[in-house]
Design a protein that fits this description.
The complex is a heterodimer of chains A (425) and B (303). Chain A is an alpha/beta fold and 425 residues long. Chain A is built from 18 helices and 14 strands. In chain A, strands 2-1-3-13-6 form a five-stranded mixed beta sheet, covered by helices on one side. Chain A has a four-stranded mixed beta sheet with strand order 9-10-8-11, sandwiched between helices. Chain A has a three-stranded mixed beta sheet with strand order 7-12-14, sandwiched between helices. Chain A is globular and about 65 Å long. In chain B, α3 runs antiparallel to α10, α4 runs antiparallel to α7 (168-193) and α10 (223-238) packs antiparallel against α13. With 303 residues, chain B is mainly α. The longest helix of chain B has 42 residues, at 2-43. Classes of the chains: A alpha/beta (425), B mainly alpha (303).
C-alpha cells in the first residue's frame, strides 16, 4: 500500500514536471520556474530577518519566481524536522531545505535523497573561497551535498568583566590549567564558576564536546569520529575527568535551566564563565546588552587557535519539483551578497573567506578573523561530526551522567562509545 | 404478529443507523486499526534508518533488542514509577475530596468545578508553569515551590524535584496529580450519588454507625467507580508525553516510553524501533483497558 502510493505521488510529480515544462537538464539551465518552496525553521527574530535579507537578494535576481517559505516554528527545528522527514519519505520534497552541514545530513545522503552539488562548488568557485578544512569536513566520499550559509562558533568562553574583576581575574584563561585556577578564584569570591544549563541535555553535551577537544587537541578529537582514537581510551578518560572537575564548579539547579537562563547568570554577574556557541551574543544583543561591559568573549580555554564550528546549510533534494529555482537559490546561499545579507542579522559569520567585515559587529569581526586562520574542527552536538542517531545517544549519555551527579566516568565513556557505534549503524 | 412488525422496523432502523456511522467506521478502520497493523508490519522489518532501501522481515528482533536496550528499560522504569505515584496520588486526594464533598459541604457545585478546572489546562501550558514551580535551586536562590516551602517554615523539605536522580519521576507525578485529582473527585462523587439513599437509611435503621455505613455499605458499591478511575488514570499515565516534554524536554532523567519512541522515530529515523516501542506501549495499554471494556460490556448486557 505504501509503495503504490509512493508511485502515485512520483507519477503525479512527473506529470507536473512535464506539464510545466521545467525539465531538469544541467545546473546552468535558466530559472523559468514560477514558484519555489523552501523549508526552514527560521521563523522569528534575527534568523527570520536574516533569511528575509537573503530572500530579497533572491527575488531581485529571480523576479518571476514566487518564493514560498514553509517555515515551521519551533526551536532547533524539532517540529520542522518531523514534518520535513514525512514529506521526504512520501517523495514530496520541498525544493530546498535547511539542515546542519556535516553528518546530520548522513541519513539523507545514505538514503539517496540529496543531489550531489560538487559541480556547483566548482562553477561558483566555492571550492576556493570556502576554507579547505570546511570543504574536507563536509565532503562525503568525494561529494558535497550542501551549501553552508553561515558559520557559528561553538567553543566560545563568555564571561562577565565585572564579576571577573571582583574575583581578581583580568584576562581570559587560555589553557585548561588557567581555566581551573580562575574557577577557583570565582569560588573564593563567592561567585559560581561555571554557568550550566541542563535542560534537554544538549548544553551539557556541548560543554563535554569542547572539553574533549580541549583535552586531546584537534587531531585526536577528529580521530574519535574516524575510528583512530578510542572512546574508551586514556584520552577520553582524561577529558571526562576534566569535564567532571569543571561541572563541580557549576551552578545549583542547573537541571532546570535552558541555555538563555544559564547565560543570564553570567550577564547578571552571578556566574563567571559560560561555554556556549556564539548565538548567545546575538541573543544578548537583542536583549539590549552591551558587548564589552555586560559580557565579553574569548576562545574557549585549551582551544585557542581552534575554531569549532557548526553551520546551517541548504540542500537540493532528489526530485525537487522546481529544480532550477532551487539551484538559483543555492547560488544565492553561497554567494557573498547572500551571505552578507543573512549573517549580520543572524549573528553568525559568513562561511566565505571574503565577506565584507564592515557589516559585522565586533565579536563577529574577530570570529571572522579567526575563521580564516584557525584550525577548523566540527561540532559533535550540532550535527557536523555526528549524525542524528549519534547525537541523540550522545546527549542521552551526557544527560544520564549529569543527572546521576557526574560520578560514573567509566560509564560515560562506555555510553559515548555506544553512541559512536549507534551513529555508524 | 406485532412482534414481527417491530423487528422489521428495527431492522430498517438499524440499516439506516449503520449508514450514518459508516463514515466513522471506515475512517477508524483505516486510520486506527489499519495503521496499527501497518506499524506492526514496520516493527517486524529492518527499517532501522530512513536510508534503508532493501527492507526485509527480521521477525521479532526489534523487540528482543528493546529488552537489551538500556535506554528503553530506563524509560520503562521511569514510566512505572510515574504511573504508580500518579495513580495512587490522584486516587487518594480525589477520593478524600469526594468524601468531604459527599458529607454535604456548602457550595458543593463551586468546589466541584473549582477542582475540576485544572483538567481544562493543556499539559504543555501546565508543564511550562510547573517547570518554574519545580525549580531545584534552594535557599537564597530558590524560586517556586522551594521558596514557598521556606516561607512557611518548611525549608527542610526543599527538593531537587524533577532533576534529582532518584526522585525525578515522583516529582513529575505532582503536576499530573494536581491536574487529575479533580476528575477523580467528580467520578467518586458521582459514584456516591449513584448509591440509593434507602441503603443508608436501612443501615441506620439496623443500627450501623456512620463509619460502618461507609465501610460496609458505601465503599463496596464504589468498586466499579474505582475500576473506572484506575483504567482512566492508567492509560493517561502510560501515554504520558506532553507533560514530560513541557516540563523537561527530552532530558534523559525524565524520559518515558512515549518520549523515547518519539526520539527513535523522528530524531534517529529508526522507524522499526519506533514502531516496536509503540506496539509495546499499545500492548501495555491494552492489557489495562481491554479487561475493563469486557467487564463494562457485560455490565451493559445485564441492564
Amino acid at each position: 500500500m505504501r509503495r503504490s502510493s509512493f508511485r502515485l505521488v512520483a507519477a503525479a510529480a512527473a506529470i507536473a514536471l512535464a506539464v510545466t515544462g521545467c525539465s531538469s537538464s544541467g545546473d546552468d539551465a535558466a530559472n523559468t520556474d514560477t514558484e519555489f518552496e523552501i523549508f526552514t525553521w527560521w521563523a522569528s527574530g534575527g534568523e527570520a530577518a536574516g533569511l528575509q535579507g537573503m530572500i530579497d537578494v533572491y527575488t531581485a535576481q529571480n523576479p518571476d519566481t514566487e518564493f514560498i517559505n514553509a517555515a515551521v516554528a519551533g526551536g532547533a527545528g524539532v517540529n520542522a524536522k518531523a514534518v520535513l522527514q514525512s514529506r521526504l519519505d512520501a517523495n514530496e520534497p520541498p525544493d530546498s531545505f535547511q539542515a546542519h552541514a556535516g553528518m546530520e545530513l548522513d541519513g539523507y545522503v545514505r538514503g539517496g535523497q540529496l543531489e550531489d552539488l560538487t559541480s556547483l562548488y566548482q562553477s561558483e568557485g566555492w571550492d576556493k573561497i570556502f576554507p579547505a578544512d570546511l570543504i574536507r569536513t563536509i565532503t562525503v566520499d568525494g561529494k558535497i551535498y550542501s551549501v553552508p550559509v553561515n558559520i557559528h562558533r561553538a567553543n566560545v568562553l563568555w564571561w562577565n568583566p565585572g564579576a571577573a574583576t571582583k574575583a581578581g581575574i583580568t584576562k581570559a584563561p587560555e589553557t585548561l590549567d588557567e581555566f581551573f585556577a580562575d574557577l577557583e578564584k570565582f569560588k573564593k569570591a563567592g561567585i559560581t564558576g561555571l554557568a550550566l544549563a541542563g535542560k534537554g541535555d544538549w548544553a551539557i553535551a556541548h560543554l563535554l564536546d569542547w572539553m574533549l577537544l580541549a583535552s586531546m587537541g584537534p587531531e585526536k578529537f577528529e580521530g574519535l569520529y574516524n575510528g583512530s582514537t578510542s572512546w574508551t581510551g586514556p584520552e577520553v578518560a582524561a577529558g571526562i575527568k576534566n569535564f567532571q572537575r569543571a561541572l563541580s564548579y557549576g551552578n545549583k539547579g542547573a537541571g532546570n535551566l535552558d541555555w538563555p537562563d544559564a547565560g543570564k547568570l553570567v550577564t547578571d554577574g552571578k556566574a563567571g564563565f559560560f561555554i556556549m556557541g556564539d548565538w548567545a551574543s546575538a541573543q544578548w544583543q537583542s536583549d539590549g546588552l552591551k558587548l564589552g561591559t555586560d559580557y565579553t568573549y574569548a576562545a574557549a580555554p585549551g582551544t585557542v587557535g581552534v575554531y569549532q564550528w557548526l553551520s546551517d546549510s541548504f540542500v537540493l533534494p532528489v526530485g525537487a519539483p522546481h529544480r532550477n529555482a532551487a539551484i538559483a537559490w543555492l547560488k544565492v546561499c553561497g554567494s557573498k551578497e547572500g551571505q552578507d545579507a543573512f549573517n549580520p542579522k543572524k549573528g553568525s559569520i559568513s562561511a566565505r573567506t571574503d565577506s565584507d567585515l564592515s557589516l559585522y559587529d565586533d565579536y563577529l569581526k574577530s570570529a571572522a578573523a579567526d575563521w580564516k586562520k584557525d584550525r577548523l574542527v566540527g561540532s559533535t552536538v550540532h550535527g557536523v561530526m555526528g549524525n542524528n542517531a549519534l547525537m541523540a545517544a550522545y546527549n542521552a549519555a551526557v544527560g544520564k551522567y549529569f543527572s546521576g551527579g557526574f560520578k560514573d566516568n567509566a560509564g560515560l565513556a562506555k555510553d559515548l562509545a555506544a553512541a559512536y557505534e549507534a551513529g555508524k549503524a | 404478529m406485532s412482534k414481527v412488525v417491530r423487528n422489521k422496523r428495527s431492522l430498517s432502523a438499524r440499516v439506516g443507523g449503520l449508514f450514518f456511522v459508516l463514515p466513522s467506521i471506515i475512517t477508524v478502520i483505516i486510520f486506527v486499526y489499519g495503521l496499527i497493523l501497518w506499524s506492526v508490519n514496520v516493527s517486524l522489518t529492518n527499517q532501522n534508518s530512513g536510508a534503508k532501501k532493501e527492507i526485509e522481515y527480521i521477525g521479532l528482533k526489534n523487540y528482543t533488542d528493546l529488552i537489551a536496550d538500556e535506554r528503553f528499560t530506563h524509560s520503562l522504569s521511569n514510566l512505572v514509577k510515574f504511573t504508580i505515584v500518579f495513580i495512587l496520588g490522584a486516587l487518594v486526594t480525589g477520593f478524600i475530596m469526594a468524601l468531604l464533598l459527599e458529607k454535604g459541604i456548602k457550595g458543593e457545585g463551586f468546589f466541584r468545578s473549582f477542582y475540576l478546572y485544572p483538567m481544562a489546562i493543556s499539559f504543555i501550558a501546565m508543564g511550562t508553569v510547573f517547570n518554574w514551580l519545580l525549580n531545584s535551586a534552594r535557599d537564597e536562590e530558590a524560586g517556586g515551590l522551594n521558596l514557598a516551602l521556606q516561607k512557611i517554615g518548611l525549608g527542610f523539605l526543599q527538593n531537587d524535584w524533577y532533576v534529582s536522580e532518584k526522585g525525578a519521576m515522583y516529582a513529575m507525578a505532582l503536576p499530573a496529580i494536581w491536574q487529575m485529582s479533580g476528575y477523580v473527585l467528580a467520578l467518586f462523587l458521582a459514584g456516591f450519588r449513584g448509591i440509593p439513599d434507602d441503603l443508608r437509611e436501612a443501615a441506620r435503621v439496623d443500627g450501623a454507625s456512620e463509619s460502618q455505613i461507609y465501610r460496609h455499605v458505601l465503599f463496596p458499591q464504589l468498586t466499579p467507580t474505582l475500576l473506572t478511575v484506575l483504567i482512566i488514570l492508567g492509560h493517561i499515565s502510560m501515554k504520558a508525553f506532553d507533560l514530560i516534554i513541557g516540563i523537561n524536554g527530552k532530558s534523559y532523567v525524565t524520559q518515558v516510553v512515549a518520549v523515547y519512541m518519539w526520539e527513535a522515530t523522528f530524531d534517529k529515523r529508526d522507524y522499526a524501533k519506533g514502531t516496536s516501542i509503540a506496539i509495546v506501549l499499545l500492548i501495555m495499554i491494552a492489557i489495562v483497558v481491554v479487561p475493563y471494556l469486557r467487564y463494562n460490556n457485560k455490565q451493559q448486557a445485564y441492564r
